[in-house]
Every structure is written in structure tokens, then in C-alpha cells.
Design brief:
With about 130 residues, the protein is mainly alpha-helical. The chain has five helices and no strands.
């Protein structure tokens, strides 16, 4: 593990965390506080971005290991947030909002996987 790699991941992580904070704060102003829309949107958006990035790197751009780590582990790893998703589920369950908790789990998983696939498919078409 090189110092350059550590700085690449650290800088990407800082950017991803700032992007997540900004997006979640912005979404929070427009959504109902009882359902974790902001986390759902961040995770689906991050999944789409990862799918797009996978196809871009497979079809038209071959960045070095540091750049891949900066983008995937750093930026997207800090941007998306499974721990916040898990906490949101527990809060919904503790408030007795079982249908919302189940819906949130299903939407998060299904939409995030669909978004990753959509990102891959879109950039496969654009770059092919």
C-alpha cells in the first residue's frame, strides 16, 4: 500500500462525503422527515454512478489504480452509505412503521441494483 494510494482514497473519500452531505441536505429541505428519502436517493444515485463508471472504464477509459481507487473506493464509497440505510431501517422499525421499513428496504435494494444496471447500460450504449 503506497502513500499515493492512501492519499487518493482519502481525498476521494473527503469529496464523496461532502457530496453526500450537500445532496442529503438539499433533499432534506424538500422531503417529509418521516421517510429517509435522502439516503434512498443518495444510494440509488451512487449505484447509477458506479454502473456508469464500470462501463466507462471497461469501454473507453483505463485509469491507473490510484484514479480507480480515488473514484470507486474514495468518492463513491463515501458518497453512498449502507450504515445510514441500516440506521434508517432501525428507526422506522422502532417507531412501529413496519410497512415503511419494508418498503424502504425493498426500494433501496431494487432501485440501487436497477440504477447500477441502468448506468452500465446507458454508458455501454453511449460509448459503444
Amino acid at each position: 500500500m503506497s502513500v499515493k494510494m492512501l492519499f487518493s482514497v482519502a481525498f476521494g473519500g473527503a469529496l464523496g462525503a461532502v457530496f453526500r452531505y450537500a445532496l442529503m441536505s438539499g433533499i432534506g429541505h424538500f422531503t417529509h422527515a418521516g421517510f429517509p428519502y435522502a439516503t434512498l436517493i443518495v444510494n440509488v444515485t451512487g449505484s447509477f454512478a458506479l454502473g456508469a463508471l464500470i462501463e466507462i472504464m471497461a469501454l473507453s477509459w483505463s485509469p491507473g489504480l490510484e484514479m480507480r481507487s480515488f473514484l470507486v473506493i474514495g468518492v463513491l464509497g463515501a458518497f453512498t452509505t449502507f450504515s445510514t440505510f441500516s440506521q434508517d431501517v432501525i428507526f422506522l422499525i422502532e417507531r412501529g412503521q413496519f410497512p415503511s421499513a419494508g418498503g424502504y428496504i425493498a426500494l433501496s435494494v431494487i432501485l440501487s441494483i436497477a440504477a447500477l444496471f441502468a448506468g452500465m447500460a446507458l454508458f455501454r450504449q453511449v460509448l459503444a
